[in-house]
TrEMBL record:
Catalytic activity field: D-ribose 5-phosphate + ATP = 5-phospho-alpha-D-ribose 1-diphosphate + AMP + H(+)
Organism whose genome encodes this protein: Paenimyroides tangerinum
Enzyme class: transferase
Function noted in UniProt: Involved in the biosynthesis of the central metabolite phospho-alpha-D-ribosyl-1-pyrophosphate (PRPP) via the transfer of pyrophosphoryl group from ATP to 1-hydroxyl of ribose-5-phosphate (Rib-5-P).
Similarity remark: Belongs to the ribose-phosphate pyrophosphokinase family. Class I subfamily.
Domain Ribose-phosphate pyrophosphokinase N-terminal: start-end pairs: 9-123
Protein name as catalogued: Ribose-phosphate pyrophosphokinase
Length: 313
């Protein structure tokens, strides 16, 4: 008797709909129909407008601020559970609150752990995400987590640039592991920026560990928020004799006047994914879509195939 695996359907939270449409197109199906009803006080309620009984649903939602994005995802998971979906996979290209992965001072929450528990309590049976701010967040879940790396998107692009005298740089000590992984694959040198902060998002001093004289530098990080670190690092490296400075950042949060900082900086180019929609276009920003990566892995998960060939590093 032939085993029949029920079909899958893809649905999107309202703020991630454009990315979800690209993922669905790469997957080969239409995006599912879900509506969002609003009450006059701002409360909202998602509703699946088609049957999802007995199938796998992929719910696509990047949980960047505001908190409504996370709440919408939680409500959709709960609705799918109550509608008898067979599997509920939360596809979270950008996993918000990931910077709160530990107690770095007294009397603060571990927000990433809280989010993990909320997703599981709502009914998610699997989580799929990309370039977590801290790898150990996978351990906050009791359900399977597919942690994808945007390096599978970025590295082919870097190779296509054909840069000579290439140096990979980490904008801080915490990102050195990621920088070394890129450098190992590309066979390049590594430098690290050492920065001290007065407070969150405000840099007091920055020093460079390593030599960038006559080098084409690519900074590698998981996210760009205010843009201050990247702008400062690019300026320091150009002062130290770098030929050019580019930056690769998976998640383009770009809060406040970050775009203005990037455009005014010494950066030649900022390369990001579409895990978060850009607030506005910029000549200095190149967006590489993560849609095909997620669609391919979703196919593999649906068909119970290994996803190990999707990990370049």
């Amino acid at each position: 008797m032939t085993h029949f695996e029920p079909e899958a359907k893809i649905f999107a939270c309202s703020q991630s709909k454009e990315l979800a449409e690209r993922i669905a197109k790469n997957y080969g199906i239409e995006l599912g129909n879900v509506t969002l009803s609003h009450y006059s006080d701002g409360e909202f309620q998602p509703s699946f407008e088609e049957s999802i009984r007995g199938i796998r649903v992929f719910l696509i939602c990047s949980t960047f601020p505001s908190a409504d994005n996370l709440m919408e995802l939680l409500l959709m998971i709960d609705a799918a559970k109550r509608a008898s979906a067979r599997h509920i996979t939360a596809v979270i290209p950008y996993f918000g609150l990931a910077r709160q992965d530990r107690k770095d001072k007294p009397r603060v929450p571990i927000g990433a752990k809280l989010v993990a528990k909320m997703l599981e309590t709502a009914g998610a049976t699997r989580v799929m995400t990309m370039d977590l701010h801290a790898d150990q967040i996978q351990g906050f879940f009791e359900k399977p987590v597919d942690h994808l790396y945007a390096s599978t998107i970025f590295l082919p692009y870097v190779e296509s640039l054909g840069l000579e005298n290439l140096t990979i740089a980490s904008p801080d000590m915490g990102g050195s592991k990621r920088a070394y992984a890129y450098a190992k694959y590309l066979g390049s040198e590594v430098v690290v920026c050492y920065k001290q902060r007065k407070k969150a998002n405000v840099i007091e001093t920055m020093e460079l560990i390593g030599d960038v004289t006559g080098r084409n530098v690519i900074l590698v990080d998981d996210m760009v928020d205010t843009g201050g670190t990247l702008a400062k690092a690019a300026d320091v490296m150009m002062e130290k004799g770098a030929l050019s400075v580019r930056a690769i950042c998976t998640h383009a949060i770009l809060s406040g006047n970050a775009l203005d900082k990037i455009e005014a900086s010494s950066l030649t180019e900022l390369i990001v994914t579409d895990s978060i929609p850009l607030k506005r276009q910029s000549d200095k920003i190149r967006v590489l879509s993560c849609a095909s990566l997620f669609a391919d892995v979703m196919h593999m998960v649906q068909n119970n195939n290994s996803i190990s060939n999707k990990f370049i590093m």
